[in-house]
Amino acid sequence: MLERFFKNKYAPRWIIFCCDLILITISFLFSFFLIRHLLVDLPSVIKFIPAIVINLLVFGVCVFFFPIYRGIIRYSEINDILRIIKLASLQFLIWVTIYALDSNTIITGFLPVPLLIINLFSVIFLLVMFRLLVKEIYSKASQSKTGNITKTIIYGAGEMGQVTKQVLEQDMKKNVEVVGFIEDSISKIGKNLAGLPIYNASNPQLAKLFKQKQISHLYIAIDKLSVDKKIAISDLCASLNVKISVIPHAKDWRGGFFEKKQVKELNIEDLLERDEISLPFDMIQNIYQDATIMVTGAAGSIGSEICRQLSKYKFKKLILLDQSESGLFDLEFELRRNDQKHLLKVEIASIRDKVKLKKIYSFHRPDFVFHAAAYKHVPLMETFTSEAVLTNVLGTKVIADFAIEYKVKKFVMVSTDKAVNPTNVMGTTKRVSEIYIQSLSDRKDSETEFITTRFGNVLGSAGSVVATFKKQIASGGPITVTHPGITRYFMTIPEASKLVLEAGKIGESGDILLFDMGNPVKIMDLAKRMIQLAGLKPSDISIVHTGLRPGEKMYEELFKDSEEFAETYHPRILRAKKSPLMVSEFNSLMIELEQAARSHSNEIIPFILRKLVPEFNASETEKKPKQISDELTVLEEIKAI
Q: 417 and 287 in one domain?
């Protein structure tokens, strides 16, 4: 019966209040008996009753200021003890005041100051011990689990680790037993925390310990754990079939505790094989404060995260522009919870629509434009080349030209490493956009600074290899990898978005900012690690090699050999100075490219792109001279119509 009560009920507040009243009275009587050396008689006790009544009234006044009965006793912590100390101190001060103002025999004869001092400490002792006793009884009741018990160990023997232990042991829905902690801090290893031992996380015998203790779940309860250590513990747990969960950052806790739904499994983003680039993001506040900012592609992975980062700061207006109404609806709903209701403006539009964009620019007059809208899927753009050109090249041209016309302060375009020595249409269109954006910085009539950011694959973005692998693993496989030796650079969505915003701060007109992506990651290794994180063995999910897709490279490059670099204030951000190399007939070729794209001459577009970007190397798109000549003739006929 008692066990069922502690498992399923919170003690009603009136019961806690009544218990506190009883304890207050016991404390008062104890102080009275002690001050009289335990020599009391019935007449003295009867005369003391009015003082007991007054003491209860004084307690009622103190509880009004410090409602100690409202807390959930099973979750009592240091703040609850401090509240009890404050209540007892206030009670003591009120009694001293009464003592000073009243000279009745009830007060002077039965309540000397030593009695009040004894009562002060006994009240604190009894109320604290009562809460600790209830907490311990509840803990013992919670440990009487039935069925399979999950043996758990916690990585981190700090405050987060201790709170994690409390939350796990108080979770009645899970049969969890915490057997200890593991730590990297030498000062903590070998000691105890909350009665449990602290082991060395770097001990080569850690695997043996896990087997002996029959560990089946590990919780990472450290705010910052290096990527190397995450990878090491992940490899260890994968070999022992131990599940890993990550406790949320302490700043996201509520009331000193985290919620069960906040706990997440260790994912591939956590195992990004380098530490994230850390930036002084607070410095951005001064740049974007009181500014009107427009983000194109706002419903996309990068665009939406740029908006989330900006929503942390004060600005005049944030314009969310995209042609995806569902994505914009979800993003607007999310951002409006951040008390920015009057600062958001949604615009459903295509960046290819000149008329609509002119109205948007004219009405909002943005100070900053972050251009993240683009087609990014390489194989699809190999087939739909005209769509790639219309959006990635001509859409960018429309957005950038209006930025000059309406005197935007800074225009930041999101580019890709696929624009470097491109082997596909998508990468080439992004390179053409880079060239055009850089060329605008030379226009004498321009007051706009044009900056380009360039980085590799973004983990977790729509259509990324990570999302594809997750779906394939969920369906039981196989995982498809185009080539066993293929590599890619990776970064997280928040990191990429912060870097784009940072570019708006430090970039100068004509710059291409490159970010240190660390070492490239083998896609085969990525696939194997994701299988492990799913709680499976590499033998459980087959990996099939399908061959390189059209336009796909074995490895990506972040810069061209001909690009000249300069350092920035940040050691992991480089500035590629404006390249003087640009084909002389660039403007005429742009006109020709636009005509080919609008007529959807998909076969001839790669040939024109090759002229615009001589380093474009795509043998599968090359054509025989006779075929190209015929297509150019057709194009001229279309232009004449």
A: yes
Helix (H) or strand (E) holding 117: helix 113-142
Distance in angstroms (rounded) separating the CA atoms of residues 28 and 85: 16
Residue 318, phi then psi, degrees to nearest 5: -120, 120
Taking the C-alpha atoms of residue 58 and residue 203, their distance in angstroms, rounded to an integer, is: 57
String of b and e for 252-291 (b: at least 16 CB within 10 Å)?
ebeeeebeeeeeeebbbbbbbbbeebebeeeebeebbeeb
Residue 279 φ/ψ, nearest 5 degrees: -125, 150
For the chain, how many structural domains are there in total? 4
Helices (runs of H) and strands (runs of E) counted in the chain: 23, 22
CA–CA distance, 488 with 457 (Å, rounded to integer): 7
Domain end point (choices 266, 296, 330): 266
Q: Which residues are paired to 566 by β-bridges? A: 575
Taking the whole predicted model, whether its pTM rises above 0.70 is answered as no
**pLDDT at position 238:** 83
Question: Residue-wise over 334-366: b if at least 16 C-beta within 10 A, else e?
Answer: ebeeeebeebbbbbebbbbeeebbeebbeebeb
Amino acid residing at 349: A
Which pairing describes strands 543-545 and 479-481: parallel, antiparallel, or unpaired?
Answer: parallel
Let me know whether 131 and 177 are in one domain: no
42 and 183 part of one domain = no
Q: Which residue has the tokens 């024109």?
A: 608
CATH number of the domain bearing residue 197: 3.40.50.720
- As a whole number of angstroms, the distance between CA 396 and CA 590 comes to 12
Place of tokens 């779940």: 217
d(C-alpha 16, C-alpha 73), whole Å: 9
The angle subtended at Cα 574 by Cα 573 and Cα 579, nearest 5°, is: 150
Cβ pair 361, 296 in contact under 8 A = no
Question: Among 21, 32, 2, which residue's Cα sits nearest to residue 117?
Answer: 32
Which residues constitute the domain of residue 41? 2-142
Three-point CA angle 431, 437, 439, nearest 5°:
105
- Do the beta carbons of residue 608 and residue 592 sit within 8 Å? yes
Mean pLDDT by 10 residues, the chain (641 residues): 45 71 81 72 72 78 72 60 80 78 56 78 82 71 62 87 79 74 88 86 86 89 81 85 81 63 73 61 73 94 90 87 93 80 86 96 95 91 94 96 94 90 92 91 86 80 76 86 84 81 79 78 84 77 84 70 66 70 78 94 91 77 41 43 39
Closest Cα partner for 321 from 291, 359, 349, 354?
349
Cα separation, 512 vs 434, in Å, equals 8
Element (H, E) at 26: helix 13-35
